[in-house]
Structures are given as structure tokens and as C-alpha cells.
Amino acid sequence: MNLVAVVLAAGHATRFGSDKLSALLDGEPLLFHAIRAARAAPVSRVIVVARPGLETGTWPDAPPVEVVRLDSPALSESLKTGIAAAAGANGAFIFLGDMPVVPHGEAARLAELMGSAYAALPRHDGRPGHPALLSARAFPDIVSLTGDEGAGRLLRTRSDVVFDDCPDPAIHFDVDRPEDLGWLASKDRAPEN
């Protein structure tokens, strides 16, 4: 199965008050942590949908990282752009650029569960999180999204979505404010791969 990862990083981060994805966590831009999680997934390539001017780094070795620039901060536009770049793949993992501590092994578990499902999602305490794995069957439906809407509405209406009950609440943690980075830095976390 040919899977790709899409990292969404085109938003303006208005709640953060500055360039959130370039803010440092463990000495690296926040976005680099999300790209590293995407590269740990069982994928043939990683597509980063980034706003103009955002530093996306250099990533040697496999899987390769491709950057697609997008002027629109709308989540739906980022998702559509990423899915269009993933054309030809059997499925796409959706990672968010402001989720730096997604467990690296979760994507592999989702790929194992996927089968013929429309999508596979991690779930903690009954709430779905990230990364989401969308099958190629979901790709045409992404076109209907508008504004700051992600794929959540589509996924909630489907009966053919499978879930992995994940013990790690990090599938929900996104950085919205500078104090979120301070909180992360103060936690004793295992180093990322």
C-alpha cells in the first residue's frame, strides 16, 4: 500500500501571537517536530503544505519531504492542497504542524488497522485525535470542505471509520499559545526518533 503523509502548516496562528511554527521546542522549530513524526510513519513521502516564508528545513534520506506553498490560511484549503499533492497514493496521514508530540508509533498502528475502511483515527478517552489516515476513497470528499473546516465533519458521518484506542493523550495536544511550549519544555518526555 502506497501511503503518504501530509503536514498542514499554512495557518497564521493568531492565538499564538507570533510565528508559532518557528517557535523553538527543544532547540528546534515546532514544525520540525511534526515533520519528524510524519517521517516516522510508514510512508513513501512527506508533503508539507506551508505558507510562504515558513522555514521547512532540509531532510536528507527517506522518506523525502516535499514542500507545497499556499497563501491561504484556511484549513480546508491546506487539506485540499495536500490531498491534491497526494494524488495516486492509497491513503494519506494528516499531521498538523502545531502538534509536536504525536506518538511516532501511532501511524503504523493506524496503517495496520486501515484495511478497506474510509479512514483510521487514534482515539483517547473516547475522543479522536491525530494523525488521521484517510483512504484514497476519502480524497474526492475533501473537495467539499470550506473555510476553517478540517475533515472532522466528514469522518463523523461515516460508519466505515476505524479507531485505535491509544493510551497516549498526546494525540490531542496542539500548541495554541506560547505557554503551551513552556508546559511541554517542563515535561519529562522521551526523546523523539
TrEMBL record:
This is Nucleotidyltransferase family protein. The keyword Amino-acid biosynthesis does not apply. The keyword Magnesium applies. Keywords: Magnesium. It comes from the Bacteria. Residues 5-159 form the MobA-like NTP transferase domain. It comes from Novosphingobium album (ex Hu et al. 2023). The lineage of its organism: Bacteria, Pseudomonadati, Pseudomonadota, Alphaproteobacteria, Sphingomonadales.
